[in-house]
């Protein structure tokens, strides 16, 4: 296998305890990311890196590989993501596995689809680039955002931004934010730079808003689940209309 799809899923979460194994639209949350990875039909190893025996068993049930259990020191809130990736690559390398490409899929982006994974890898393979990071368009212009002091005064903001505040949103420059759904890179470059955010050769993979929800708290979870259930309902309706 020249491609490693790595899904990091620790058991701890302060804002939403147990979120990776939490039931979500009929399956555990992590299962949706495993499904997207496997359905991408890439010749890849789909590996879950977790410190949780429960998540490990669920991941195996839905088709992912669990060649190791992540050490506790790499499963804290403050554990750098690159350390988790290095541990996975090193451990797999000692088991005789070497990869040319790595795709990181966070289970907190369950609305990401299989074709997104395939397209991101194709972008990496077909261009002279070193890293691909998924993004989505910002809903509201950043020119309309501000930092508030304790007094909640907007005087200085209005004074500085007034010309832009009078513009319609369509007249302002489109902006994009990193959505956390897909990170892809050539393994050699990732090892060298120790980050997907490389010094050069990084390309954005644009994703639509409805696929770009990143679950951080219960409100995100409920919103994403409603979108998923609506999507599944629409798929069922289409199948009924086109048997």
Provide structural commentary:
By secondary structure, the chain is α/β, with parallel strands linked by helices. It folds into 2 domains: 3-138 and 174-241, Spore Coat Polysaccharide Biosynthesis Protein SpsA, Chain A, CATH 3.90.550.10; 139-173, no CATH class. The chain contains 7 helices and 8 strands; from the N terminus they run βββαβααβαβαβαβα. The protein is globular, with a radius of gyration of 20 Å. It starts with a strand and ends with a helix. The model has no long low-confidence stretch (mean pLDDT 90).
**How do the helices and strands follow one another from N- to C-terminus?**
EEEHEHHEHEHEHEH
Structural class: alpha/beta
The poorly predicted ranges are: none
CATH architecture annotation name of the largest domain = Alpha-Beta Complex
CATH class of the largest domain: Alpha Beta
Radius of gyration: 20 Å
* CATH homology superfamily of the largest domain: Spore Coat Polysaccharide Biosynthesis Protein SpsA, Chain A
Largest sheet: 6 strands, mixed
């Amino acid at each position: 296998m020249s491609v490693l799809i790595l899904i990091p899923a620790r058991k701890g979460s302060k804002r939403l305890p147990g979120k990776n194994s939490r039931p979500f639209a009929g399956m555990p949350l992590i299962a949706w990311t495993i499904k997207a990875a496997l359905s991408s039909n890439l010749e890849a190893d789909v590996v879950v890196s977790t410190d949780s025996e429960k998540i490990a068993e669920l991941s195996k049930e839905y088709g992912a590989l669990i060649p190791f259990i992540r050490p506790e020191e790499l499963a804290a809130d403050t554990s750098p993501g690159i350390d988790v990736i290095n541990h996975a690559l090193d451990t797999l390398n000692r088991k005789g596995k070497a990869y040319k490409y790595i795709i990181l899929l966070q289970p907190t982006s369950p609305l990401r689809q299989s074709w997104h994974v395939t397209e991101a890898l194709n972008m990496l393979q077909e261009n002279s680039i070193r890293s691909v990071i998924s993004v989505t368009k910002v809903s509201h212009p950043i020119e309309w955002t501000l930092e508030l002091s304790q007094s909640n005064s907007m005087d200085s903001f209005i004074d500085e931004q007034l010309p832009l505040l009078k513009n319609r949103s369509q007249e302002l420059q489109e902006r994009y934010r990193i959505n956390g759904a897909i990170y892809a890179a050539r393994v050699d470059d990732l090892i060298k730079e120790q980050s997907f955010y490389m010094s050069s050769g990084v390309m954005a993979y644009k994703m639509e808003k409805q696929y770009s929800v990143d679950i951080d708290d219960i409100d995100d979870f409920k919103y994403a689940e409603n979108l998923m259930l609506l999507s599944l309902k629409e798929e069922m309706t289409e199948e009924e209309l086109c048997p």
